[in-house]
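Intended use. Records such as the receptor protein-tyrosine kinase entry shown here are meant for training and evaluating sequence-to-structure methods. They are not intended to support clinical decisions.
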Amino acid sequence: LGMGRDFPLTHPQSLPVSPDTAYHHASKIEWKTRSDIFGEFYCRARKSDKNQIYTYKMLNEAAFLPESLTITVSIGEDVNISFTRRKVFAEDAVIYKNGSFIHSVPKNEIPDILVYPVQGVKSSDAGLYTARSIAGAKSTSAITRLIVRKCKPGLWGPSCEHSCPVCSNGGVCHDETGECICPPGFKGHTCETVCGEGKFGRMCKEWCRDGYCRSMVFCQRDPYGCSCGTGWKGFNCSEACSPGFYGADCRLTCECGDKGHCDRFRGCVCVGRHGSRCEKQVCIILSVVRPCQHHFTRLRNNSDSMILFYYQVECVQSSDPGTVKTYQLPSNSTGLKLPDLKPRHKYECRVRIMTVSMGQHSQPVSAWTLSNELPPAPSSIRSCNITDTSAIITWSLVEGHSISKVMLRFQDNTLMQFHQVIGCAYATSETYSTSPSPPPGLAGLGSEGNMLFYAILGSAGMTCITILVAFCIVLQLKRATFQRRMVQAFQNIVREEPVVQFSSGSLNMPNKKHKNPEKSVAYPTLEWSDIKFQDVIGEGNFGQVLKARIKKDGLRMDAAIKRMKEYASKDDHRDFAGELEVLCKLGHHPNIINLLGACEHRGYLYLAIEFAPHGNLLDFLRKSRVLETDPAFAIANSTASTLTSQQLLHFAADVARGMDYLAQKQFIHRDLAARNILVGENFVAKIADFGLSRGQEVYVKKTMGRLPVRWMAIESLNYSVYTTNMYFVLTCVSGGTPYCGMTCAELYEKLPQSYRLEKPLNCDDEVYDLMRQCWREKPYERPSFQQILVSLNRMLEERKTYVNTTLYEKFTYAGIDCSAEEAG
């Protein structure tokens, strides 16, 4: 035999083989490294390409498992290629055919069973189908092979002109020769003969090593493919058939009726009968012997011939081979009850027929007796694939303890859980479930009406599919065009004299305070080829923010890419490089937008930061004003916001926590406002500074900087001094414009005269008191961020309604002054 490997190699590779003494005329291969294990392998007679037999190996790292290693269909049939999800990952799922991409599923829409349907199968649909995550290596793929017979079902021959024989017990008709390829465990011209448990091969002369063929996969020449041995099912072929099923992969159903019982290895077993439904009577020819003692049974068949026999049963305790017990049973017996067995022990029995000569023993059957002790605790408990919302727990059980079920108990040891279920009361537990139900009947429609209905339904379905495909094509073309334009635009921009000097992973920045003109800043680097631009999400006078897909440490993820425009000044470029320096020094924190990496391309700096899917907090809060966006919903639910008091306080606590971290790092933000706070995954607030998209009228000039007057402390207005104390973080959660209706000049005049905002009608006194503390004139009288965080955490623990979102009479939202927030 010759053996080799096809997939994932571009050309077949022959592998060294050695004899396998466990079976007749068998060979085996041994893998040296884990990378050699994965793929499609074949064996064949040496110097012959005909009748190659294929098998497939996958690694434990695979995120999916195929429903079966091979699927056999005929021309024109419909088939679903299915993969079962075994690991949770935050990436899109992709399906390939023969190494070429054919289908993808977004990461938030991946079902437990990933299905790729193929309608009206053609010969070109045959091949190797693989599934994995979009960022996964090829060796983490799940593999299944679609085998397509060249003829329609029931036909064979060069022109498919011959009718196939009726292949019994799951046999497959060969489309070229017309012979039945029998599943493992069956033989004969039409696979009608049963080999029995543990046997396989063309003449049923091969035995499985353990006598049961458990956990063994049998692969045969096309078009049969691969399957478990008879009596077994499951991906690892380790699950016994359910009652009423038998054969390879347990695909066959017993129809014995009351004439016999179903054996998962043989099918219907009937006394005096045979056939798949016990429909045929057995004719027994008996030899003539002398009568024997009274304990033998005499069987007659309408003649004077007779045969005398009885059953001999031998049972032994597996752990003590010396305890063999022998029982003799009359010929009309069908079972034996074993007395005086020990609990939690394994016993094996075998049976043979005794006549004037001894018959052969059957294959042994084994069973455990029930345990009289509590089972021990599971061992080897491990957790893996831990994500924000799920984890996989595995354990091992000890045999022989009659374990009927395993109870898994867990509890949440965190302080709080955060859910957002629109239209439902906060902190309620809801369970959603779906169940399949049959489609309603079409009353009053005859066969012609049904045909017309199906024709209309099919036409409408094809129209919808065509529109959907066209939409997807247009969308893909637009994305490709946008990506191409982005790359071309960036390729054409070359800065002759960069303001900052770049070298691999570091940049040199001018330092005005010291004689040493430059200082080096190290940053995590990204390759230009690993950035795929998708869309513009923010744009200002001198800069741009784009959504992109980046590759970092082998993983694909979403990111926001910041860059300066070509006509930005040197000071703008220097400030932008300074932002990279700040992010590098800050490190990682859950309540700030963290740096993912940076890339220098043609003299320009591209900054990759975390992507916040819910946008900035200001727009997020204003979208929650349901009385403006959906009045009917607001009135029906008597609420003015889709957010609860707890959620609003969570936003404030997140901001305070992030600002406390900045204060500890000795950094001053200078522009803390809701527009500079982003809402990330799980609705966590993160501090950012998107100064590139600010409106000009928000700021007044003071020296050479632009100042956000409505969000600044009083001393900052007078002396350009910035403090780390909390000033306006609580009003950020209101979604309104601070001091709506007043100009910046009026604020500049009135704030030093102790003018402050009035208390909002829906705000609790305790919250407003905390606001007033933040607005004190003297910086040292204001609470620190750490003190504010303690106060907010205490409010969250009390679960009191501090911000009332209930719709009351004459309710009004905080005002929005667009002229004060945007240019013009």
